[in-house]
Specification:
By secondary structure, this protein is of the alpha+beta class. It has 8 helices and 19 strands. It folds into 3 domains: 92 residues, Pseudouridine synthase, CATH 3.30.2350.10; 133 residues, 2-Layer Sandwich (Pseudouridine synthase); 64 residues, Archaeosine Trna-guanine Transglycosylase, Chain: A, domain 4, CATH 2.30.130.10.
Length: 308
């Protein structure tokens, strides 16, 4: 006899303003417990020493979590010049020091080099797997870790202010897989110095911003009632920039049964959105998301069907 799953069906997104000192996985478990939800996941890890936006997917929202993780993100961070650490943040021991301090003019002159598609080597204290093991586990065991450079997309890298001679604060808009600790390290190297991150905050993940976020304390105060409040966003909230396709009751039933829909029945809608064969659409019935779909050889085929 199958063991009954803990919790109740809860579907949607809760956007948490993650506090310092708490890991992403622990926060997911906490939110799941507070809302008594069967299933939960998150849309992009934040280090314990980082704060800010952590989208938490509940129930059927876990089927579209990749759209949050692949969306553009915005970070604010402060770099401490003249000291590098083993972890590229405040958690690690200082491993190098220098008296070189860049001026505001120096900093501004190099930032354009860190925009667009750039090569970046992740920090050795990261969750990237090397031969099946996390890089940070190998590093903590004093096992040499050599991570390969990879391409990341940085749309904007700007200096917010020079706080003092030792610190400067930045704002970065970037794509999936960008490590801010590596960015601070590389900017410092380009300026002939070294640095580590002393403050890191994420303010945007895909369509989610600070205006959507709730603190953990506020969520604890709401308890289970959060499920019936504006705190719980719709599953499709992460798909704001994906074209919508309105279905009839019969078309909805076909998709839910694993069947396809003939393109002819929705061709007028597709013409209005300019959809091509490669585009993913959000299929709706009476305003509620039913599935993610795609045009395949003259038919509409479900990629992900939601069950609610």
């Amino acid at each position: 006899m199958a063991r009954k799953r803990w919790g109740e069906p809860v579907h949607g997104w809760v956007i948490i303003d993650k506090p310092l000192g708490m890991g992403s996985t622990g926060l997911v478990g906490k939110v799941r417990y507070l809302l008594n939800a069967e299933k939960a996941g998150h849309g992009g890890t934040l280090d314990p020493l980082a704060s800010g936006i952590l989208p938490i997917a509940l129930g059927e929202a876990t089927k579209v979590v990749s759209y949050a993780m692949s969306g553009s993100k915005t970070y604010e961070f402060t770099a401490r010049w003249g000291q590098s650490t083993a972890t590229d943040d405040m958690e690690g021991d200082v491993i190098a020091e220098t008296d070189v301090r860049p001026s505001e003019t120096d900093i501004l002159s190099v930032l354009s080099e860190f925009e667009g598609e750039i090569d970046q080597v992740p920090p050795i204290y990261s969750a990237i797997k090397v031969d099946g093991k996390r890089a940070y586990d190998l590093a903590r065991a004093d096992i040499a870790v050599e991570l390969k450079s990879r391409k990341v997309q940085i749309d904007k890298c700007e200096l917010v202010r020079c706080d003092d001679v030792d610190h400067a604060s930045f704002r970065v808009q970037c794509g999936k897989g960008t490590y801010i600790r590596s960015l601070a390290r590389d900017i410092a190297v380009r300026l002939g110095t070294c640095a580590h991150v002393t403050r890191l905050r994420r303010t945007v993940v895909g369509p989610f911003t600070e205006k959507h976020a709730i603190s953990l304390d506020s969520l604890e105060a709401l308890g289970h009632s959060a499920r019936d409040s504006d705190t719980l966003l719709a599953v499709e909230a992460v798909l704001d920039d994906i074209p919508a396709l309105a279905l009839s009751a019969d078309e909805t039933r076909r998709l839910q049964r694993g069947q396809t829909i003939q393109l002819g029945s929705v061709v007028d809608q597709l013409a209005l959105t300019g959809v091509t064969q490669d585009d993913v659409l959000c299929a709706l019935f009476e305003g509620e998301m039913i599935a993610l779909v795609k045009c395949v050889e003259g038919e509409i085929k479900a990629l992900r069907v939601l069950n609610r």
